[in-house]
Design a protein that fits this description.
about 210 residues; 2 domains; six-stranded antiparallel β-barrel; about 20% helix; about 40% strand
Length: about 210
C-alpha cells in the first residue's frame, strides 16, 4: 500500500468521495482540475514535456506545443498521478484529449488518488512524497551550478520527480542546478544535504539505467 492509499483510507470517511467528483456525466466520467508538469511519449518513442490540465478515471486533457494525431497511442507520466496511457481522442488548442486505457484495478487506484488530492486541497493536508524512491547503486554524481562550477556529491535516493543529495553546503532553495545531465531545482535543505526537484518528470526506465 502506497502513501496515497494510506491517506485515502484515513480520509475517505471524512472528505469528498470519488463518486462525488468522478461520477457519470456527458463524458461518462467527470474531470477533476489538476495542474502538474509531466512528460509524454508518442508512438515513435520520442518524448516531450507537457502539462496536465484535468483528468478523470476515463480520460485527461494535456497541454503541449507538440502536435499529435487523433488515434495515436501516447504514454504520459505526471508528478501527481504517475503513468497514464491511451489513444488521442481529439485535438485541442494547445494540446489534446486522451482516453485512459486501464484495468479496473488501476481505475480504482486512480479514483482513490484523485479523491485524496481533492481532500488534501479541501482539508489543507500537507503534501506527501508522491513517488517511490530508489537507492541508486551508482551514488557518485556531479552537481553543476549556474556559474559552471561542479561539486562531487552522493545521491542518497532518487525518483522520477526528484533526488536527495548528500553534501556539506548546498546552494540556496530555488537555485537551478544540473545533477549529472538532469536539470533540477533546489527544493529544500536537510541534515545530510539538499533535496532536488527535477525540472522535467523523468522516464523511470531511463532513470534506473542512469543511476544503476
Amino acid at each position: 500500500m502506497n502513501a496515497f492509499d494510506d491517506a485515502f483510507a484515513d480520509f475517505r470517511d471524512h472528505g469528498v468521495s470519488a463518486s462525488d467528483h468522478i461520477g457519470p456525466d456527458r463524458r461518462r466520467h467527470k474531470r477533476v482540475e489538476l495542474f502538474c508538469l509531466g512528460r509524454f511519449m508518442r508512438a515513435d518513442k520520442a518524448e516531450y514535456p507537457c502539462k496536465l490540465q484535468d483528468v478523470s478515471v476515463g480520460g485527461s486533457c494535456i497541454l503541449t506545443p507538440q502536435s499529435v494525431q487523433v488515434g495515436e497511442h501516447v504514454i504520459a507520466y505526471f508528478d501527481e498521478i504517475g503513468r497514464i496511457d491511451g489513444p488521442v481522442v481529439r485535438l485541442l488548442s494547445g494540446g489534446f484529449a486522451m482516453q485512459i486505457v486501464a484495468t479496473q484495478h488501476r481505475r480504482e487506484k486512480l479514483a482513490a488518488q484523485l479523491t485524496w488530492l481533492i481532500n488534501r486541497k479541501m482539508l489543507g493536508i500537507p503534501e506527501a512524497r508522491r513517488h517511490d524512491r530508489i537507492v541508486p547503486k551508482q551514488m557518485n554524481s556531479m552537481l553543476q551550478l549556474a556559474d559552471g562550477s561542479q561539486i562531487e556529491v552522493n545521491v542518497l535516493d532518487v525518483s522520477i520527480s526528484g533526488a536527495s543529495v548528500a553534501m556539506e553546503s548546498g546552494p540556496p532553495v530555488g537555485t537551478e542546478v544540473m545533477l549529472g545531465r538532469l536539470r533540477a531545482r533546489v527544493a529544500r535543505s536537510h541534515e545530510a544535504g539538499i533535496a532536488l526537484q527535477f525540472i522535467d518528470i523523468q522516464n523511470p526506465m531511463a532513470l534506473r539505467k542512469h543511476f544503476g
